[in-house]
Amino acid sequence: MANIFSNIPSELPNEIFEDIIITEKLRVERIVSKGHSSPESGWYDQSENEWIIVLSGYGVIEYENGNKVALKEGGYLNIKAHEKHRVIETSPDAATVWLAIFY
What we know:
Blueprint: E1 16-22, E2 27-33, E3 50-56, E4 59-63, E5 68-71, E6 76-79, E7 85-90, E8 96-102
Antiparallel strand pairs: 1-2, 2-8, 3-6, 3-8, 4-5, 4-7
């Protein structure tokens, strides 16, 4: 992928998760959402730290303790390993493009 905004379909029935770089200690992923949220059945509980930035659109992250963080374009967040969280809202009318760095 030469451009982070390339190959984004106009219709997104499912979120897109694409690894850009994978090494032993680092993983970089592009996520594309459009009105998507995390499954109702649970929380993300990842074994890796995750640093995320919203490159376009917006997203709202909720932590298990009820705290919510709204991320607009350029907004970023560091989520510690095993810090339970979920995405509760993304832009419904335009693609939200996230860059996630797992370390």
